[in-house]
Amino acid sequence: MNLLNIILLAIAVGVFLKLRSVLGRRTGHERPPYDPYSGDAAGNDKVVTLPKRPRDGALGERDGAARTIDAAGDPFAAAPSRDRWRGIAEPGTPLADGLDAIAASDRYFDAGAFLSGARSAYEMIVTAYAAGDRETLKPLLSNEVYRSFDDALKAREKDGLTVEQSFIGIEKAALKGASLDGSRARLTIAFKSTLTSCTKNSDGVVIEGDPVTVREVTDVWTFERDVKNRDPNWKLVATGASD
After folding, report:
1. CA 94 → CA 71, 101, 148, 201, distances in Å?
2. How far, in Å, are 125, 131, 185, 220, 236 from residue 216 at the CA level?
3. Is the pTM of this model over 0.70?
4. Is the dihedral of CA 187, 192, 195, 198 positive or negative?
5. What distance in Å separates the CA atoms of residue 149 and residue 132, rounded to the nearest whole number?
6. Confidence (pLDDT) at 241
């Protein structure tokens, strides 16, 4: 090994030892490991603070579990407002009393959210029934109502009939009744909708209705849910026409 190689090797060893002495030393000012569950996200606008575990009596996710908590024993519970059902039910009416009873058994019950979901369910059921879509209907209906719908579909299919329908929209959906029987909550809604609909025979001839004339339809449906069941879904248990 010539003199130049020895000098270069000595320089390389010296640099290595210097780097090791610096990188291996802890000064006490190192950043801690990143914790994605930490609420400290200062200085990093790309970090989303994750929600903390809810305290007892609150749900991080709506899992449908019914839980009754006495307001007197919960310092975070506020007394229900007299106008808590504003725009849905007048205070002191049987409808408001029924909603109060349901809310007392399921503190996460939201009448406004229920109405929104019921509107979606109504359109899905009406559309699925016209199309003969049993797969969509089954989870939305009680066993008794499903059997009734299924029987009607079988009779229609036996006669070779088909329904052509265009659902235009819901003009109004209003709560008409609310009750709690044991753990079973029931809510009745009057739907006013518009659609076009006709029934055709096996030859494609219209035998009922009109494919272009817009009709206004009013239905009164009742939905039910067991507030002690973890399943948060409401099911259609009764159908009828408006008075």
Report:
1. 23, 10, 30, 46
2. 17, 19, 29, 14, 21
3. no
4. positive
5. 9
6. 77
